[in-house]
Sequence to fold (1015 residues):
Amino acid sequence: MTVGAQVGPDLLPYDEAVAQFDPVIGLEVHVELGTVSKMFCGCATEFGAAPNSQVCPTCLGLPGSLPVLNRTAVESTIRVGLALGCDIAEWCRFARKNYFYPDMPKNFQTSQYDEPICLDGHLDVEVPTADGMRPVRVEIERVHMEEDTGKSLHVGGATGRIHGADYSLVDYNRAGIPLIEIVTRPVEGVGSLAPEVARVYVTALRELMRTLGVSDVRMEQGSLRCDANVSLRRLPTDPLGTRSETKNVNSLRSVERAVRYEITRQAALLSSGGRVVQETRHWHEDTGVTTPGRSKEQAEDYRYFPEPDLVPVAPDRAWVEELRAGLPAAPGTRRRELQETWGLSEFEMQSLVNAGAVELVEATVAAGAPQEAARKWWTGELSRNANAQGVDLTALPMTPEQVARVVALVDEGTLNDKLARQVIEGVLAGEGDPDEVVAKRGLAVVSDDGALIAAVDEALAAAPDVAEKIRGGKEAAAGAIVGAVMKATRGQADAGRVRELVLERCT
Amino acid sequence: MSDTDLTRLTAARTAAVIAAGEASALDVTEAHLKRIRAVDGDVHAFLHVDADGARDAARRLDARRSAGEEMGPLAGVPIALKDLIATEGVPTTCGSRMLEGWLPPYDATVTRRLREAGLVILGKTNMDEFAMGSSTEHSAYGPTHNPWDLERIPGGSGGGSAAAVASFETPLAVGTDTGGSIRQPAAVTGTVGVKPTYGGVSRYGLVALASSLDQAGPCARTVLDAAMLHAVMAGHDPLDSTSIDAPVPAVVEAARAADVRGMRVGVVKQFSGEGYQSGVEQRFREAVSLLEELGATVVEVDCPAFDYAMPAYYLILPSECSSNLARFDGMRYGLRVGHDAAASAEEVMASTRDAGFGPEAKRRIMLGTYALSSGYYDAYYGQAQKVRTLIVRDFQAAFEQVDVLVSPTTPTTAFRLGERLEDPLQMYLADLCTIPSNLAGNASMSVPVGLAPEDGLPVGLQVIAPPTADERLYRVGAALEAALGDRWGHLLIDEAPELSLNTTEAAL
Fold:
């Protein structure tokens, strides 16, 4: 897949950039855990609730309030760590990251600093190349726990950002939602594949979170957020170059685009004798560029120190082993099993993975549909709908069971493909189950031969020249009559049966 | 019983009088409200008197009692709370302009437990701003005066709670102790103050100064009263992760037993000599001899790391405090300064903090910000934590030899208002003997042991027990109190001069 190659005065064409420089990337992924309550208090975590309706003294940071650690969040983090092959710390602590910002109720974030709960793991991914799939091991440095901040809404001004805004509103519903941060080691030696590696890695991580059931990982809702670090060096043997950290990368596609953009931007700077500034940059989805944020060279000093309001976390070894034993099969393993069972090519399997449809297809098959049909609907009609709405497949209001039912209706001849698409449209529009939509919209295929024969005869009579050709042995001419019949029955006939009848009537 | 009689009773006796029907909870409450009206103009122990809330609570209690309901051992007894303890709908200022007018939307766990036990909350007491100080002179609302001598400090930061108890405005008060803020005021006002083991009393709803050091505890005129309040306040709280999940030590039983026979008492070698007032040392030595007479064995104990307690404390406390006080920024509650259309959020935060914090709060925020900053952390905060470990080890070694340690609570008696205000280091020395217990998290008490001959002002003796052995404090404190009471024929507080009664104070 090639993503739009942006080239401008300050950018070097991508091929030139990667011919001159060796890119190194690092990814920091924040995942909101799908716990019922927040990290340090009992408040609900539901997305989209009325502003400041899911708050209490603790997540508002009121004077005197204290945090209490959410055990389920710790459990989810350990499961993520185990699935990534990390060591689970026998003893770790939270720390305070001190900085002032209006969406931080305490003006410090309770996070982990030098004592994270998970260390030293990896995630193996496969990157599509012209020569087939290339395996890449992405090393994980750490996975740690922290709390989310509130959300600022800057009103007025042109940018929607704080500078230039007339005033700002803060919603603290998000403050205190459990987050984990998964930090990779520098990914070296992937050369020009760096942007694809970034996308494939985040895709695989998202799939892993979903398989573990620890998060709904919806990038568009911010429950998975990615910061991409990019640096360049002349030779793979050179020390690492100065990096930029790009934030606000809110879709899988933009992960790849942002890395690619940074490579071309930094390459242009370096090749013209400039230097890369270590800084935070902001990705703009609409224009496809990054712009500078705050410079790390004048960065804030976070004055980390151990959080005195919480006791150290010392996960019991027996508990950790219990969690390890309860891990589901890794998505990679499960994928290979499915690929084999279903007899799919690499490409077919990869399309399913890229569409985020593996589990959905699996569930649809479990509900009785053949895999071919299940794949066809999820990667076709349903993916188109999801893309049009800008949401993930899982966010569509249609269940695998309902898709299986549509497949069954097609198989038994009640629906043809065209009608099936209308049924799906009805289900997505909230008109009810497939059967209800069929009934309400009157969509069943006309299967009464008497009615069809009448329609066929009528069509033949209306086009005597065509009828003559068919009678003369030109079966291909039957298509025109079939088309006319389908039109007359508003698509509710089984085209195959109509064709049989046309030929029958012309002998 | 006359109003004066009702205010002179101990908490234990007050509860008994109410239980016997000799006075109602409302009578008791009214007597104390009247006393506050009469003397608090001079003492200034209270920042807020919640007369209506107190009367309502007393009436409800009386109604429940007449309905035959079983009541707790302190039901109907009035109490005052240090003004950093969250009280729903009742002002909680922490002695700071920063929180002027703030009404907490919730009760601290301590507040809730007191209400549930039937204590009647009279109001909120004065304190050094955000509990930083040893004289209550750093309150944004003016100092509290020592009832023994109105020209002198009542100690701090909890000078309001100690002075309220010492001036018979309330039989009980709650304080908090980060480096001595319950014990040092108790010592200089001739009252009893206890810092329970760290984690013994929930910190939920106590506006934090230094989270790893803060601990709430009782202020009272007798050791038994302190024990009874301790028993009500303490106990595990799931809302405080650092709260101890174990039964409360048997403090009331220990106070009733008042028995030190066979106990091994260690005198801390480091807390004597230069800087200690002669009358303080004299009364302390006499009290130690008395303990020996009562059947304890006394030895001297060397705790060399205690010499570094003060510098370590003044790195750890400001570090935690700089972070804890960061939330006061004018964004969500409390004071907001410089808010106009042109000002950025950052500018409003800066103006608010500049206007809202007093000089001592600013000093400690600056110290802590510096101590935690990158490149200095190891040399300051990190090193201080190592000293803290050494102090814990000194205590552990000491408690292998003895059951409790004793020292003067504070090197001098109450100093004059203004005397140390311009000299922070002199001010900090008032907590020299009390700080090690906060760093180690163990239990400590100050109990009155007489008046210094040279100035006639109260002297306190500090008893220190290992973590979770709080009951030992009460055995020693109650034994001393009883023996001294036998000798004097009354409590030390009964020797305090009569305060002039101001009857023109506006009705509350």
Summary: The domain at 3-306+389-491 of chain B is CATH 3.90.1300.10 (Amidase signature (AS) enzymes). Chain B touches chain A through 46 residues (CB under 8 Å).
